[in-house]
Amino acid sequence: MTLHEDWAAIPQGAHGAAVALGNFDGVHLGHVHLLKSLHAARPDLPLGAVTFEPHPREFFRPQDPPIRLMLPAIRARFLHEQGVKQIFQLPFDADFSHRSPEQFVEEVLHRALGVQHVACGPDFAFGHRRAGSIDFLAHRLEALGIGLTVVPPLTDISGPFSSSRIRRLLQEGYPERAAEELGRPWFIAGAVTHGDKRGRLLGFPTANIPLGRHIEPARGVYAVTVHHPDGRMIPGVANIGRRPTINDGQESRLEAHLFDTNEDLYGQTLEVSLHRLLREERRFDGLDALKAQIAEDASQARAALGSSV
C-alpha cells in the first residue's frame, strides 16, 4: 500500500487505478461494500481510494466538537486491509475547497491521479459548494474515457450504513451496535500521558489517553479491551468523561484500567476498544464511594467481556 499526500506530485507508477471516492471515516461495512463492488467491476486494475484530509466538515466548521471515528493513519491501515493499493489522501484546504467540479475531474482525477475507473455512492457530491452531481461526474468521466460505477448503499432495516449513523450510536451509548456496522469494535487510539495518579491511589491505576480529534462517545464507564503494541489484547474497564467527583474541569478524557496488568505504559500507543456502556457518568459522595463503585464497575466489566469478547 502506498499513501500519496501530494496530489500534484503523483508518480506515473501510481496511475491507472480504479478508485473509490469518499471520506472513509471508520472504514465501515458500507465502505467495504463500495470497495468490493469496485473491485468486482474492474478486477484487472489496482484498487485505490481517494479521500480527504482533514474531513471537509472539520475544515468548514472548526469550532464544532471533533467528529472523527478514526485518525488518518488508522484509516489507511484499514483501507490497506481491504486490498487498497493506492491511497490518494487529498489535502482539503481553502484552495482545494474552491475548485470547481470540472477542475476536480479534469485536474485531479484525470491529469494528476491518472485514474482509469471511479466508484462512488449515489449521493456523492463534490467541487465548490458541492455543485458536482453524479450526472455531471458521469458525463465528464465518459468524455475522458474513464469508467464509472455508482454503487447503491449497503442498507439494513434502519437505512443506509453511514459514518454519521455510527457516530450517533456511539454518542447515544451503543458501542456494540456501532461495532455491528463497523465490522469491528470501535476504538480510540492514542499515546498514554501522565495524569494526576488518583487512580493509583484508589487502587485502580489507569492509562490516560486524550480523545484528541476522536468523537466523544457517551460519557460513562465501559467494558473495554486494550490492544498493546506488542500484540497483547488486555481486558479492562474505562471511564470517558470529566470525572465529576474528582475534577470539575472541562476536558473529557479516557482513563483505562487494564486488568491483571502492572507495567509502565507512559508513551505507549494503545488502542482502546469499547464493548459495552456499563453506566453513565455521575458524581459520588466522596472518594470512598467512588472507590467502591469502581470495584463494582470492574466486576461488571469482567463479566461483560467474558460473555461477549
TrEMBL record:
Its EC number is 2.7.1.26, 2.7.7.2. It is an enzyme of class 2 (transferase). It catalyses: riboflavin + ATP = FMN + ADP + H(+); FMN + ATP + H(+) = FAD + diphosphate. Residues 181-306 form the Riboflavin kinase domain. Keywords: ATP-binding, FAD, Flavoprotein, FMN, Kinase, Multifunctional enzyme, Nucleotide-binding, Nucleotidyltransferase, Transferase. Pathway: Cofactor biosynthesis; FAD biosynthesis; FAD from FMN: step 1/1; Cofactor biosynthesis; FMN biosynthesis; FMN from riboflavin (ATP route): step 1/1. InterPro entries: FAD_synthase, Riboflavin_kinase, Riboflavin_kinase_bac, Riboflavin_kinase_bac/euk, Riboflavin_kinase_dom_sf, Rossmann-like_a/b/a_fold. Catalyzes the phosphorylation of riboflavin to FMN followed by the adenylation of FMN to FAD. Belongs to the ribF family. PANTHER family: RIBOFLAVIN KINASE, RIBOFLAVIN KINASE/FMN ADENYLYLTRANSFERASE. NCBIfam families: PRK05627.1-3, ribF. This is Riboflavin biosynthesis protein. It comes from Asaia siamensis.
